[in-house]
């Protein structure tokens, strides 16, 4: 069943789903909803349109993502040439990732992320076609998936694949409607495994399934979850012996930085026209880079959307896999409105002493504004609670 065309508001500003707090411990997969009983992490979100005429950023997070206690999904989408791509991704990217996890349980998480980026990119191209070119925007993106898994990289404590959240079940009808670019190079760390950007999902996933969800799955399509999704089961509490692994993926210059024992570790890659590797890829494809811009137009070389430039501006993400340890304090996800103003370590130093994630995100945004950033600014701070500080699950 094909999803109904999305209906956007007349406002030129991108609108993220309102942030709420669950009445009890469980959010049941609800987008942008805090859980007062969440003992695994604390998330803070703050945004400001700055000096720009319109707000073209959006954000999203899900507590106990995919029905597993302590998991989380977090993302920032930085739109350009309009709000539509960023706004749509803020509402639906998490659904596409969850659908891929559910239908391809034997695929590694980095490959799942890569697949999800391509599926979302195709969906945005479809929306552009259906709108007769009225929706032609794009967005850079940084996502993080905090996953709980056993020492084999599996989720053997699950009896079935991840469930589809309540928000996904009405995806085929109403859920497509909406409510309402500097820095240090990535720090090296032996505990962090990086994967270079890929042009397409791996063709030999099962043989390389070192990080899987157990069971046998099939390749997911670009179609979103439908109203036939199964009922939402209770949230599964994994054994205390499980480890936490942070999987990140980005396209463009939205960035993720981890604070490990006070030191900044960049988990993402800035895809810009000024990057020699990216510039070569574009010229090899028949395009050109002028003044740091693809075909003299776009400053980033990877994004979701931008259908008219898809031959050069691809949606293939850069992914990383990081096993968290007690030295890992917090994660910053932000658009270039922040990173144009401060470097990785500068951002870490600015908020490391702030225990409250919401206050930390606000501080970073206000710092960028006070230094005259000329862009929208959106920041997510995820402060991890180590096993020694977490209460018993």
From TrEMBL:
Residues 227-237 have a biased composition (Pro residues). Residues 154-238 are annotated as: Disordered. Residues 42-384 form the PPM-type phosphatase domain. Keywords: Hydrolase, Metal-binding, Protein phosphatase. It holds the Pfam family PP2C. CDD domains: PP2Cc. GO terms for molecular function: metal ion binding; protein serine/threonine phosphatase activity. The keyword Metal-binding applies. Signal peptide: none annotated. It comes from the Eukaryota. Belongs to the PP2C family. This is PPM-type phosphatase domain-containing protein.
């Amino acid at each position: 069943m094909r999803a109904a065309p999305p209906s956007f508001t007349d406002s030129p500003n991108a609108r993220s789903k309102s942030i709420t707090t669950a009445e009890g411990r469980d959010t049941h997969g609800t987008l942008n909803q805090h859980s007062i009983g969440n003992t695994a992490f604390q998330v803070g979100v703050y945004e400001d349109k700055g000096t720009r005429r319109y707000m073209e950023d959006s954000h999203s997070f899900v507590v106990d993502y995919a029905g597993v206690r302590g998991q989380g999904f977090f993302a920032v989408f930085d739109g350009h040439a309009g709000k539509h791509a960023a706004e749509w991704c803020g509402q639906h990217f998490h659904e596409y990732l969850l659908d891929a996890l559910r239908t391809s349980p034997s695929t590694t998480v980095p490959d799942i992320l890569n697949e999800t980026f391509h599926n979302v990119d195709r969906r945005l191209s479809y929306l552009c076609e259906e709108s007769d070119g009225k929706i032609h925007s794009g967005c850079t993106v940084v996502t993080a998936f905090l996953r709980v898994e056993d020492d084999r990289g599996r989720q053997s404590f699950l009896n079935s694949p991840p469930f589809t959240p309540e928000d996904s079940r009405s995806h085929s009808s109403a859920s497509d409607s909406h409510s309402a670019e500097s820095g240090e190079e990535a720090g090296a760390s032996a505990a962090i495994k990086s994967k270079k950007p890929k042009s397409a999902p791996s063709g030999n996933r099962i043989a390389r399934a070192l990080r899987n969800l157990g069971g046998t799955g099939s390749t997911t399509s670009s179609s979103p979850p439908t109203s036939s999704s199964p009922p939402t089961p209770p949230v599964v509490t994994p054994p205390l012996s499980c480890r936490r692994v942070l999987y990140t993926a980005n396209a463009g210059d939205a960035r993720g930085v981890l604070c490990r024992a006070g030191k900044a570790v960049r988990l993402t890659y800035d895809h810009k026209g000024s990057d020699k590797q990216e510039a070569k890829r574009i010229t090899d494809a028949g395009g050109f880079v002028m003044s740091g811009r693809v075909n003299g137009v776009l400053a980033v070389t990877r994004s979701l959307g931008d259908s008219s430039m898809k031959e050069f501006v691809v949606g293939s993400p850069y992914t990383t896999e990081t096993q968290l340890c007690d030295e890992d304090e917090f994660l910053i996800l932000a658009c270039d409105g922040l990173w144009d103003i401060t470097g990785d370590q500068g951002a870490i130093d600015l908020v490391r002493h702030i225990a409250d994630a919401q206050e930390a995100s606000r501080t970073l945004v206000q710092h960028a504004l006070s230094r005259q950033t000329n862009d929208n600014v959106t920041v997510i701070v995820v402060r991890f609670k180590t096993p020694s500080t977490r209460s018993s699950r």
